[in-house]
Amino acid sequence: MTETALTVHQTARPVGFPTPDHFAFVESAMPEPGPGTALVENLYWSVDPYHREMMDGDFALNAPLEGRTVGRVVDSRDPALREGEIVFHRQGWRTHAVVTPEQARAVPHFDGVPLSAHLSILGGTGLTAYVGLTRIAELREGQDVFVSAAAGGVGTATGRLARLMGAGRLVGSAGRAAKAAYLTEHVGYDEVFDYHSGPAAELLAKAAPDGIDLYMDNVGGEQLEAAISSLREYGRIVRIGTIAQYNSTDTPYALRNLPDIVGKSLRMEGFLVSNYRDVQEELYEFVVPHLQSGRVTLDETVVEGFGGIVDGFLGMLRGENQGKLIVRAAEADA
Q: What is the 3 state secondary structure string of the chain?
């Protein structure tokens, strides 16, 4: 274990797309755990689209950022956190963190399942997709689904889980032809369109000519409007995120077909996955056997080394990742 620790701080509020200048790597002495705490050496970090929203005011400036992380307890002053144990906590964007038992939970070991899965399909990303499909949308077998930002972490997890749940036609949108091909060839989507190639309403109507029952919305804006037009009577919209607006300095897109929500008796609902932590064990029971059998594989883009966390985050915002973006420490395989 090194004698110093690194943390990433946000140094300024971005206007539009953030740059490396909005962040700083700060070196400090290795933190020491006090009574009732433990020191964790972080091994995997999750960087997520919601971090961009938090940069506008939720993250304190010149202070360590937060995020989902998996690490190893290396020094403990509490019997509830055993040295050598692998734990999940939210004090990310740093190489080491001091946590209490209330701030960390042990990560279960599943034979044949990599630790990184606990930040992708078994973590908050997969839980978001699972809750959206089962609790919010109440997906039923044979129903047709449209997923925006389908090549991202939540989008790939949604595709995998919806296919396991017996969804009918599965349609996605992505920003590149290569991503569309990956989604249809490997994830289970029936049709994926490049949203840069034309008006979203026309592209979706072509991909799902008979309409859709459910829209999993990671984007908002024009694609949400397109989905409202394509939804059948009593369709559902699950609002997960609004990636289209995160870096925009323009006036937000104005939906022109909101009356259709009334006319077609549609239901639109958003949620915070943090309110559904009690569903975590159910997610394990549903997904782990499929990971172990090979029916489900991991959709991850891995950045090597903590020093790449800022570049990885910015690349994710530019859509350079395929599946969940995860940063891995050199010590992760030790």
A: CCCEEEEEEECCCCCCCCCHHHEEEEEEECCCCCCCCEEEEEEEEECCCHHHHHCCCCCCCCCECCECEEEEEEEECCCCCCCCCEEEECECCECEEEECCCCEEECCCCCCCCHHHHHCCCCHHHHHHHHHHHHHCCCCCCCCEEECCCCEHHHHHHHHHHHHCCCCCEEEEECCHHHHHHHHHHHCCCEEEEHHHCCHHHHHHHHCCCCEEEEEECCCHHHHHHHHHHEEEEEEEEECCCHHHHCCCCCCCCCCCCHHHHHCCCEEEECCHHHHHHHHHHHHHHHHHHHHHCCCCCCEEEEECHHHHHHHHHHHHCCCCCEEEEEECHHHHC
Residue with tokens 């029971």: 285
The CA-based angle 60-88-19, given to 5 degrees, is 35
Decide: 120 and 326 in contact? Cβ < 8 Å: yes
Q: What is the pTM of this model?
A: 0.96
Token pair recorded at residue 133: 């499909």
Residue with tokens 């690349």: 315
| Inter-CA distances, 174 with 50, 121, 236, Å | 18, 19, 21
Q: Which residues pair with residue 147 across a beta bridge?
A: 172, 216
Q: Which two tokens stand for residue 249?
A: 């300095």
Q: What CA–CA distances, in Å, run from 142 to 8, 67, 161, 164, 208?
A: 46, 36, 13, 11, 14
Report the pLDDT value the prediction gives residue 334, as an integer from 0 to 100: 43
Where the chain has pLDDT below 70, the residues are: 1-2, 333-334
State the Cα–Cα distance between residues 168 and 226, nearest whole angstrom.
19
